[in-house]
Design brief:
By secondary structure, the chain is α+β, with helices and mostly antiparallel strands. The protein has helices at 116-138, 141-161, 167-182, 188-193, 197-231, 236-240, and strands at 2-8, 14-21, 36-37, 49-54, 59-64, 70-73, 80-82, 96-97, 105-107, 112-114, 252-255, 261-264, 270-273. The relative contact order is 0.08.
Length: 274
């Protein structure tokens, strides 16, 4: 004759059943192996729960199995731990919670709540990163520095040949015509055609640089508008009403060999020409 026994491991967690034999010397006495009991555990879902045997009252207790559960540090949400021991519960870990934090939240002792200062600082950081990424997708730092140098160099060259104007007048000339060319009121090719051959290449180099620099200043100007708006917010709703994904950055100007300009809104997409 055999009888079913219920086994548990060194931590008294149910592991399965075993058939035990009757003692050949004592009828109706069964030889119970170590770490086992004849007390049957209640039905439970073994995928989510464990049965734990108690040597005090010789009964089973069913408890949730949290193995693999990630806990979040309530003081530093980026710090996590994963429960490895099936006997452990989230409550065994002070300063940790099973609740996953959302972005820009802090723990108030009960739940994660949005923190105004954290949301504001991170939104400003997002704006900065987004704007820098947009600029650098078209206009590398090396090229920016190169254009600044070229603008100064060829402006000086222009003054050598055109000694009838001073540097302030040249600055205004460049500023006015750069805005007009970028906004389509003037063409670079038409402007170049108004000067003798010895100045045409200088003019072209000046405006090749100044138009890109003008674009950069426009992008930074838009950035500053949004930055100022964010810095002046006083509530979470005001921050959430500022949609950084809908910022209309100006298209990047591309000047070709015949001094016409196309505009790009992505690193590969030309949208218009003049």
């Amino acid at each position: 004759m055999v009888k079913i026994a219920y086994q548990y491991n060194s931590e008294f967690i149910y592991t399965g059943t075993i058939l035990v034999q009757e003692d050949p010397k004592n009828k109706n006495i069964f030889l119970l192996p170590p770490n086992s009991t004849f007390s049957q555990p209640p039905d439970f879902d073994s995928s989510s729960y464990i049965a734990v045997f108690s040597l005090i009252n010789f009964s089973w207790a069913i408890q949730k199995n949290y193995v693999g559960t990630i806990l979040y540090n309530t003081k530093n949400p980026s710090e996590t731990i994963t429960i490895q021991n099936p006997l452990q519960k989230p409550s065994d870990f002070p300063d940790y919670t099973i609740n996953q934090p959302l972005p820009n939240t802090i723990w108030n002792g009960i739940e994660w709540i949005i923190d105004f200062n954290l949301l504001k600082n991170n939104t400003i950081l997002q704006l900065q990163n987004q704007t820098i990424s947009y600029i650098l997708s078209f206009y590398s730092t090396v090229k920016q520095n190169s254009d600044l140098f070229d603008l100064q160099y060829f402006s000086n060259e222009f003054l050598v040949y055109q000694n009838n104007i001073n540097s302030n007048e040249l600055h205004l000339f460049i500023k006015t015509n750069t805005e007009n060319i970028y906004n389509g009121y003037e063409t670079l090719s038409n402007l170049i055609s108004q000067y003798p051959d010895n100045l045409s290449e200088i003019i072209k180099q000046i405006f090749n640089s100044s138009i890109r620099i003008y674009w950069l200043e426009n992008v930074k100007s838009i950035f500053n508008v949004y930055l100022n708006e964010l810095q002046n917010t006083t509530t979470i709703d005001e921050i959430n009403n500022i949609n950084l994904n809908q910022i209309n950055y100006p298209p990047f100007p591309v000047i070709n060999d015949i001094s016409t300009i196309s505009f790009e809104t992505s690193a590969t997409g030309i949208i218009s020409g003049s």
